[in-house]
């Protein structure tokens, strides 16, 4: 019988898992001997801690992960809406969060600083190398949520704009409105000058492509704005997202970050979710949140049912 | 500690102290936004406060209303005004004016209510018109409390005026927003330090103004609450 041999690595991994999330947390962990070493999918007694950004779309994806794992008998703990990357990534690196929906490009930039990679596969390859020890990225999804330059339909028709490079046809002055960091980051006026040779002014609007930015576009205070590709407001406000033909923006695919507490079986479940999610489906999920104000849990449940993964 | 020294280092960079986006220019914008917002607030608050204070009626009602107004979240209000007025400095100005009104209004009417009721009655008895009672009697007597309200309002507005950078390229808030998103915390802290310095400077200035107002209201120091009036003990 090889049961004793099986038990040793299991007990070890449970102990390691507990050690990883120990760190003086008073709520952490019964002793390693208490961990059930046998029961099927969950290798340790600890639930899988799933986090999400303070961003409704990210929360929906995190909720999908949670429900997909629960459907397969895993115990999960939800730590949603933890703010932005600066706030939660240290928590993931410290091992207090096990699974987190992320975006390939920005995540690579966080870990590696500036990078020359722009295209989907290059970014993913570099990302796999940049991941710190103890963490890994699972398969990336086709769904993207990345920066894009948008203009109003009217403006696009007036100047015949489809791609970013078409902006050179515009003879009136252009102003870009975006969060203030875009002024110095490569996705702002500097990048437009370097990659496309297009000169634009800059107006800071700090709502991240939200309603104030859309209002400024419609008022003509700005002509260009940075809005995420998965944002339903592009469709509802009849905006046009210009194709980034010069490769200015980092590819930003949905990609889960996982700790070693996420076992292979759980990783396979999440991979199936990533594979099933098409780009336009992510936009639809977001639209349900924005337009119907539907809670993330309901949106996630409906999508999983539709994909036969509930 | 190291963050603080990084913030000082950030402040010490020479190029930051000149030009249209330099620290002096942004500080001047910040002060201008603060000044205009408090002024806008005063245009509403002072007449309303005089009305309530002079009539000595409705103070409870106004206090409840202003208590509610203090709870209005400025960022939410800014987004509402921004959606109405578009981007630019107008929406933050209006938001900050709303922030200034409760303190200003409370200062004016409570200044009036603190006056012994016999004094305006006496003024009327010697033949002053209601307008004269307000301007010549009540306003000077209420002045220290009114300036106290101005002081509280200014402090709140100067600290919150960083919101102006939410919808426009105005004021010291730009350092905070830019620093937050790029993880340049030295820049954020430096921006905050300037705002703190500005708030302290205004506080000192208005405290001096308040002392001056007390001398106007009470030239003989008969009721100076600071306790520095000449008492019998001081002059045996």
Automatic annotation (TrEMBL), chain A:
Note the InterPro entries from the entry.
Answer: ABC_Gly_betaine_transp_sub-bd
Show the Pfam families listed in the entry. OpuAC
Q: Name one GO molecular function term.
A: transmembrane transporter activity
Query: What is one GO cellular-component annotation here?
Result: ATP-binding cassette (ABC) transporter complex
Q: What is this protein called?
A: Glycine/betaine ABC transporter
What is the native source organism of this protein? Tessaracoccus lapidicaptus
UniProtKB/TrEMBL annotation, chain B:
Name the UniProt key words of this record, in alphabetical order. Answer: Membrane, Transmembrane, Transmembrane helix, Transport
* Annotated localization: Cell membrane; Membrane
Among the GO biological process terms of this entry, one is:
transmembrane transport
One Pfam family of this protein, by short name?
Answer: BPD_transp_1
SUPFAM superfamilies attached to this UniProt entry: MetI-like
Task: List membrane-spanning regions.
Answer: 31-52, 59-87, 93-115, 136-165, 185-206
Stated membrane topology is: Multi-pass membrane protein
Which GO cellular component does the record give, naming just one? Answer: plasma membrane
Q: Taking the first listed entry, what is the main subcellular location of this protein, grouped into a coarse class? A: membrane
Instruction: State the family it belongs to.
Output: Belongs to the binding-protein-dependent transport system permease family.
Protein name from the UniProt record? ABC transporter permease
**From which source organism is this entry?**
Tessaracoccus lapidicaptus
């Amino acid at each position: 019988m090889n049961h004793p041999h099986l038990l040793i690595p299991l007990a070890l991994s449970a102990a390691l898992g507990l050690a990883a999330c120990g760190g003086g947390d008073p709520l952490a962990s019964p002793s390693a001997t208490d961990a059930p070493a046998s029961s099927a999918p969950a290798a340790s007694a600890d639930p899988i801690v799933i986090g999400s950004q303070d961003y409704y779309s990210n929360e929906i994806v995190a909720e999908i992960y949670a429900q997909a794992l629960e459907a397969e008998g895993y115990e999960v703990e939800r730590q949603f809406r933890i703010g932005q990357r600066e706030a939660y990534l240290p928590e993931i690196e410290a091992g207090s969060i096990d699974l987190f929906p992320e975006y390939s490009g920005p995540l690579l930039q966080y870990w590696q600083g500036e990078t020359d990679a722009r295209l989907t596969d290059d970014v993913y390859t570099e990302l796999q190398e940049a991941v710190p020890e103890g963490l890994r990225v699972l398969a990336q999804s086709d769904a993207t949520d990345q920066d894009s330059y948008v203009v109003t339909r009217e403006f696009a028709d007036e100047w015949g704009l489809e791609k970013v490079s078409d902006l050179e046809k515009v003879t009136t002055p252009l102003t870009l409105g975006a969060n203030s960091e875009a002024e110095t980051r490569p996705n702002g006026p500097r990048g437009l000058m370097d990659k496309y040779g297009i000169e634009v002014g800059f107006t800071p609007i700090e709502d991240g492509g939200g309603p104030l930015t859309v209002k400024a576009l419609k008022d003509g205070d700005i002509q260009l704005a940075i809005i995420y590709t998965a944002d339903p407001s592009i469709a509802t406000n009849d905006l046009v997202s210009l194709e980034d033909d010069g490769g200015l923006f980092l590819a930003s695919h949905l990609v889960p970050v996982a700790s070693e507490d996420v076992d292979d079986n759980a990783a396979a479940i999440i991979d199936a979710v990533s594979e099933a999610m098409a780009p336009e489906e992510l936009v639809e999920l977001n639209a349900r949140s924005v337009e119907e104000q539907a809670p993330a849990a309901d949106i996630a449940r409906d999508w999983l049912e539709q994909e036969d993964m509930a | 500690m190291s963050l603080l020294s990084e913030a000082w280092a950030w402040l010490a960079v020479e190029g930051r102290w000149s030009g249209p986006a330099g620290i002096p220019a942004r500080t001047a914008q910040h002060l201008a936004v603060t000044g205009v917002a408090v002024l806008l607030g005063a245009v509403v608050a002072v007449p309303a406060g005089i009305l309530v204070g002079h009539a000595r009626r409705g103070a409870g009602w106004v206090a409840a209303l202003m208590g509610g107004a203090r709870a209005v979240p400025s960022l939410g209000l800014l987004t509402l005004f921004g959606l109405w007025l578009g981007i630019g400095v107008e929406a933050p100005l209006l938001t900050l004016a709303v922030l200034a009104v409760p303190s200003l209004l409370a200062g004016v009417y409570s200044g009036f209510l603190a006056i012994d009721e016999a004094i305006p009655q006496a003024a009327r008895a010697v033949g002053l018109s209601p307008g004269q009672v307000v301007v010549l009697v009540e306003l000077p007597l209420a002045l220290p409390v009114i300036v106290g309200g101005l002081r509280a309002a200014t402090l709140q507005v100067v600290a919150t005026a960083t919101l102006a950078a939410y919808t426009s390229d105005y004021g010291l808030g730009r350092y905070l927003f830019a620093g937050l998103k790029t993880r340049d915390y030295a820049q954020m802290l430096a921006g905050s330090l300037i705002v703190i310095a500005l708030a302290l400077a205004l506080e000192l200035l208005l405290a001096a103004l308040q002392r001056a107002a007390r001398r106007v209201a009470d030239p003989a120091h008969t009721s100076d609450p600071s306790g520095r009036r000449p008492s019998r003990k001081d002059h045996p």
